From TrEMBL:
Pfam families: ABC_tran (PF00005), oligo_HPY (PF08352). Belongs to the ABC transporter superfamily. SUPFAM superfamilies: P-loop containing nucleoside triphosphate hydrolases. Keywords: ATP-binding, Cell membrane, Membrane, Nucleotide-binding, Transport. This is Peptide/nickel transport system ATP-binding protein. Residues 12-260 form the ABC transporter domain. It is found in: Cell inner membrane. InterPro entries: AAA+_ATPase, ABC_Ni/Peptide_Import, ABC_transporter-like_ATP-bd, ABC_transporter-like_CS, Oligopep_ABC_C, P-loop_NTPase. It comes from Rhizobium paknamense. It is a peripheral membrane protein. One of its GO terms (molecular function) is ATP binding.
Length: 341
């Protein structure tokens, strides 16, 4: 079965998120849509503050309902999950959707040992004894690469190093073989060899259990290696998305060109981390109808201040006023200039 024939797992449509602040409602995410099929890996990339974590946390119902306004729909296996009661949502989150959050401490409770926390997570969804759950926890801690899992299982989070804590959180997210794993920069806190191990582990989860993965990362090399689809976020919007191969071979949005640099990615050497682009990303209260990237875009024109149209090229799409033919010509010119420089 090709990826396009796999059943749809998660469908996010028109997700917008704003926060109540002293300055009134501040919008952090605007009109974000994407979908993930069973077993598919979607990578979300974009600068710090572009709204990646807010997107993932709010679609999982992990936002503070008192101060956050979430619009749009999120369907998981055809069920609208944002409308579910909190208890049903919690159940889905622990059993069907695993989360590796950006900050491991938010996933761990300081007052219990990590083994206890992993075992509880397993027992919340599976009828097994405390003893069996503890053994599973030890096994999982071994699988995520903790060198002495039988000892680590009885440690409290503060007794572990940052990297060990991150692995404990990954073990917890994997404990129920989730159909969807949501991983927000799961390897940033880890050193390079451990990063590679963790990625292998995620890929194994897909291979053994057919899990789909949403992976936020700053590492374009990782994206090109593991992702089937990529979504590029800028200033609270997805400015481009599509199959990884297509987006790397022919990025449509000028922001994506900037990210990709001029290295031919799928065939060339491994890309460095996100390239920096001159200028500052906007603050969320300035997400209006126009293209957020326009102030930093060399190709900006007056039309960019209006709502930029969504152009499609096969299954790839970009929010930009440049029409596809013009965009290809401009980008080629850009690459030539970079090669000459
Ligand atoms: N609770 C909140 N109240 C007000 N603003 C918020 C809140 N949470 C996030 N924001 C703002 O929303 C924007 C998007 O934040 P988010 O954490 O999603 O960025 P990110 O893309 O994950 O960045 P990074 O790569 O640094 O993790 C930021 O400007 C952030 O300051
Ligand atoms: Mg983040």
């Amino acid at each position: 079965m090709t990826m396009a024939e796999k059943p749809m797992l998660l469908d996010v449509n028109g997700l917008s998120v704003s926060f109540a602040t002293d300055r009134g409602f501040v919008r952090a995410v605007r009109d974000v849509s994407f979908s993930v099929r069973e077993g598919e890996i979607l990578s979300i990339v974009g600068e710090s503050g572009s709204g990646k974590s807010v997107t993932l946390l709010s679609l999982l119902g992990l936002h503070d309902a008192k101060t956050t306004r979430v619009d749009g729909t999120v369907s998981f296996r055809g069920q609208r999950i944002l409308e579910l009661p909190a208890s049903r949502m919690r159940r889905i989150r622990g059993k069907d959707i695993g989360l590796i959050s950006q900050d491991p401490m938010t996933a761990l409770t300081p007052v219990y040992t990590i083994g206890w926390q992993i075992a509880e997570q397993i027992r919340a969804h599976e009828a097994i004894s405390a003893r069996a759950a503890r053994l599973r926890a030890i096994e999982l801690l071994g699988e995520v690469g903790l060198s002495n899992p039988g000892e680590a299982v009885d440690r409290y989070p503060h007794q572990l190093s940052g990297g060990m804590r991150q692995r404990a959180v990954i073990a917890m997210a994997l404990s129920c073989n989730p159909a969807l794993l949501v991983a927000d920069e799961p390897t940033t806190a880890l050193d390079v060899t451990v990063q590679a191990q963790v990625l292998d582990l995620l890929l194994r989860l897909r291979k053994d259990f057919g899990s789909a993965i949403i992976l936020i990362t700053h590492d374009m090399g990782v994206v090109s290696e593991v992702a089937d689809q990529v979504a590029v976020m800028y200033a609270g919007r997805i400015v481009e998305r599509g199959p990884t191969e297509a987006v790397f071979a022919n990025p449509l949005h000028p922001y994506t060109w900037g990210l990709m640099g001029s290295i031919p990615p799928l065939t060339g050497p491994r890309l460095a981390r996100l390239r920096s682009i001159p200028g500052m990303p906007p603050t969320p209260d300035r997400i209006d109808d126009g293209c957020g990237f326009a102030p930093r875009c060399r190709f900006a024109r007056p039309d960019c201040a209006r709502h930029p149209p969504l152009h499609r090229l096969g299954s790839q799409s970009a929010l930009c006023v440049l029409d596809p033919a013009e965009r290809v010509a401009l980008r080629e010119n850009e690459l030539t200039l970079e090669t000459e420089a």
